[in-house]
């Protein structure tokens, strides 16, 4: 991103983040807020965490998440704060470990943050109990852990992987006579076929063929061969997280010359940055069907986020506006802003944020999601995913190296989630 340097906010150089690897850094302004009218209110302090600088080469890296949170705070504070309140963001590197996630959660409680916002962690069993003990709400997590969709203090902005899989079945049901699903040989993976099949059956298609794959493999030739053998007239979908790229490398290599099987996946396993990195229009994902939570990255509804990044990120290359995790952080902070405004003149505490969200504050995301609200009657209320309020997904396809809309608007998969088992 490019943008003119503003003297009041320092660029987040890597050295600054490194100095905070064992804890967190605080982003805040000094003095009065530009654009604020009347007297400034008490600041709002929140935390955003994500795995950033782990030495483990297999660890997830989501440096764009805290960077987006800091950029959002610069923008808000430069334009008067949240109704005159300065937004302070503490960031924490959870290192893609259970210990790191719990450490960040305990720090959030110790520092009395009003909420944890727009974060990424797959270790919900570690961080959610600590937040619940401290009464701290978790707003707009990426959706990488099932606890985000079950904890009474979690306020998700998307339907997580469950909605993606149910929606993906619906998407594939429109054109695939049969589907092979390559998924992890794990407890989490065991919950994937029923979700996909719910969507397929809604389109009057047969259940998928289940192909198990280890997540620590360096090659997936065996699974690719199985998928090819069963792909006649159908589609092959892989949901292997970071290993999805490895699987499709094996798959395309074994594919007979002159024959191209339709492939597919969901966001989180396939993303625009991955497509770019693997060759763009020449990548193995060209032509793939992909189910996402939000409009495609080139949709005009993302323009405000792009403008903010261009002006306030100061060229920080950790932030990719095409990254779904970055997009989720933007939406999560939009939800926080609505909750803080609903509190009015009172101090912003975790309890008041929870009361505002439970009380029915509406979050208008500018069409990036449906209007979000977390009243009891807004919850889907399934046994497996009781906290989901957004059951909408988008259908996309990779054309000329870009994720583009296959179908306009959102598709509601609430019916496919009703009887979905919990992972």
The fourth-level CATH homologous superfamily of the largest domain is Response regulator
> How many beta-strand segments?
14
User: What amount of the residues lies in strands?
Assistant: 5-15%
First and last CA, distance: 38 Å
Helix content: 25-40%
Task: Tell me the number of helical segments per DSSP (H or I, 4 or more residues long).
Answer: 14
Number of domain modules? 2
For the largest beta-sheet, the strand count, sense and barrel status come to: 8 strands, mixed
Encode the helix/strand succession as letters. Answer: HEEHEHEHEEHEHHEHEHEHEHHHEEEH
Net shape = globular
Reading off the top of the CATH hierarchy, the class of the largest domain is best stated as Alpha Beta
Determine the CATH topology of the largest domain.
Rossmann fold
From the 3D coordinates, which CATH architecture of the largest domain would you assign? 3-Layer(aba) Sandwich
- Kindly report the oligomeric state of this protein: single chain
**Low-confidence parts:** 1-25, 27-31
Mean pLDDT reading? 90
Given helix and strand content, the structural type is: alpha/beta
Rg over C-alpha atoms, rounded to the nearest angstrom = 21 Å
